[in-house]
Amino acid sequence: MKIGEKIKQKRKELGLSIKEFLKNQKNLFPKEKILSHTAFSNIENGKTAPSFTTLEMTASVFGLALFELLADTELEENFLIKRKKRHDSFYYNENAFGEVISPFHSAFRAIEMHLEPGAKTIMECSPDAPDIKYEKLIYVLSGRLKIFWNDKKHLLYFGDSLTINSSKPHYFENTHIRPCVFLVFSNPKQY
Question: Model pTM?
């Protein structure tokens, strides 16, 4: 089954119209992440492929784990992700962006981040849930990376790694003259 068909099937099983689905989405996620009626309809009808983030958000609105939404679809066994065919990317600004490099069904999210000299990400903070431990492992592939976490600064070089509790405020900055590339592994996955 195609993922768009599965999304439409699940929405109808739950008795939701597209309008009701989008309203539920607005109650759960930031405004800039919300899909339009047209975009969601195009995904259900197979006209456009959903991004990784859209699939995670859709699963959340349905009250499902991502693997449950992907079960019995063409995305269920999506292990190999070619560099030129990565399924989701996002931009903090023109000098700071990331690409999701982990498959849809994994228990964690892996992102390859790129920061040009002087670039930084926005301040982030995972939910502070008492029963869930949110963590990020950061590994520097090239360049130098300054990590601001919980009012502390850490300078990482090629090959260095740092694991943080991502429920504490944090952001990344490249204060060096060369670009910085690093990996971020988040567990559990988040938006």
Answer: 0.65
